[in-house]
């Protein structure tokens, strides 16, 4: 703690102030643990039931010591970001917080539908109308975060969950372990997510901005549409090379089952220069996402034209897709 440590954390884009009380009473007295939902390098997520209410939650156990270093501040940061995003319906809600000798425990709203990763594998791809709905929701969440100067920096299909599995419910963004607050002192560099999903500027240790999240939305969109990861290589080195050269295959047959607008959308996000990527708000108004699926109109009002040209002309979406190669 202390003022100096707080200032250093703030300069690194870490949040230090938390509002939710951190309980040191044994968590087992309040929740019954009923299985494991996920596991990373420094965290385990367990399904649990609040004994008093019978409500299901997900408890994320964050190790306070990692590689022999005190990382309690990282746990508090993740907690503070969730608090800042409390009014963001696309971000998982923080219900309570506990602390033991070893862990900070975040008790989170349970997303029962699992990861959208499960819909990024070849044999169970979603219909296009579902894909666009989930991407639109993801972008709403990202837009909301960016308005608060928060960047997620680890957006990937494993960190976008669903409220229900089948039919797919609404998305919930989780895992703010790598997220940062922008606009504090200095430039942000050197925060590394999974190479497959992170933007070239992150791999090259160049300044990080909200545009880095939009790259990841492009990767996620590609995966939901094609069932394949656009940049993954035989090894880490090959993946790095694919990302920094923006080596993407748009010729796949898998793109045949969706509208041409899908390719146009992904192409505009997977561009090397962060300043050339559209913002979350601009993405939401891309014709691929703004076209309304006809079956959702139950009112007697006539459905609007499917590709309203006037909405595209004059905007950055009017330009034809460019191929730098
Ligand atoms: P890590 O930092 O280890 O990646 P995450 O916060 O991403 O931790 O959680 C790991 C996994 O646990 C997620 O990918 C997801 O499968 C599961 N998980 C996390 N939070 C929830 C939740 N609120 N509801 C259901 N499952 C969750
Ligand atoms: Mg994760």
TrEMBL record:
Amino acids binding ATP: 60
Cellular compartments per GO CC: nucleus
Biased composition (Low complexity): 297-306
EC identifiers of the protein: 2.7.11.1
MF GO annotations: ATP binding; protein serine/threonine kinase activity
Alphabetical UniProt keywords: ATP-binding, Kinase, Nucleotide-binding, Phosphoprotein, Serine/threonine-protein kinase, Transferase
Region: Disordered, residue numbers: 291-325
Chain ranges of the Protein kinase domain: 31-289
A biological process term (GO) from this entry: positive regulation of apoptotic process
Top-level taxon of origin: Eukaryota
Pfam families linked: Pkinase
Substrates-to-products reaction catalysed: L-seryl-[protein] + ATP = O-phospho-L-seryl-[protein] + ADP + H(+); L-threonyl-[protein] + ATP = O-phospho-L-threonyl-[protein] + ADP + H(+)
Keyword Phosphoprotein part of the UniProt annotation: yes
Keyword Transferase: yes
Gene3D superfamilies: Phosphorylase Kinase, domain 1, Transferase(Phosphotransferase) domain 1
Family per record: Belongs to the protein kinase superfamily. CAMK Ser/Thr protein kinase family. DAP kinase subfamily.
UniProt protein name: non-specific serine/threonine protein kinase
Gene: STK17B
């Amino acid at each position: 703690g202390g003022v100096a440590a707080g200032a250093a954390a703030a300069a690194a884009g870490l949040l230090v102030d938390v509002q939710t009380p951190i309980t040191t009473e044994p968590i087992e007295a309040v929740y019954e643990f009923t299985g494991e939902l996920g596991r990373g390098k420094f965290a385990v997520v367990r399904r649990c039931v609040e004994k008093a209410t019978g409500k299901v939650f997900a408890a994320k156990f964050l190790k306070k010591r990692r590689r022999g270093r005190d990382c309690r501040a990282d746990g508090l940061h993740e907690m503070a970001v969730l608090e800042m995003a409390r009014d963001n319906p696309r971000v998982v809600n923080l219900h309570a917080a506990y602390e033991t000798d070893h862990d900070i425990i975040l008790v989170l709203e349970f997303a029962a539908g699992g990861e959208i990763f499960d819909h990024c594998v070849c044999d169970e791809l979603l219909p296009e109308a579902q894909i666009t709905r989930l991407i639109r929701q993801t972008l709403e969440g990202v837009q909301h975060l960016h308005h608060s100067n928060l960047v997620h920096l680890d957006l990937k299909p494993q960190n976008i969950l669903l409220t229900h599995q089948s039919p797919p419910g609404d998305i919930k963004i989780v895992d703010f372990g790598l997220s940062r607050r922008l606009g504090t002192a200095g430039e942000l560099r050197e925060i590394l997510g999974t190479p497959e999903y992170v933007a070239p500027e992150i791999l090259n240790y160049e300044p990080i901005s909200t545009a880095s999240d939009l790259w990841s939305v492009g990767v996620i969109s590609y995966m939901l549409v094609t069932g394949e990861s656009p940049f993954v290589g035989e090894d880490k080195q090959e993946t790095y090379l694919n990302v920094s050269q923006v080596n993407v295959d748009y010729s796949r047959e898998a793109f045949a089952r969706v509208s041409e607008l899908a390719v146009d959308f992904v192409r505009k996000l997977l561009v090397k220069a962060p300043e050339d990527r559209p913002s979350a708000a601009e993405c939401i108004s891309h014709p691929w996402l703004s076209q309304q699926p006809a079956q959702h109109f139950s009112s007697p009002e006539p459905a609007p034209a499917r590709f309203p040209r006037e909405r595209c002309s004059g905007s950055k979406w009017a330009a034809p897709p460019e191929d730098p190669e």
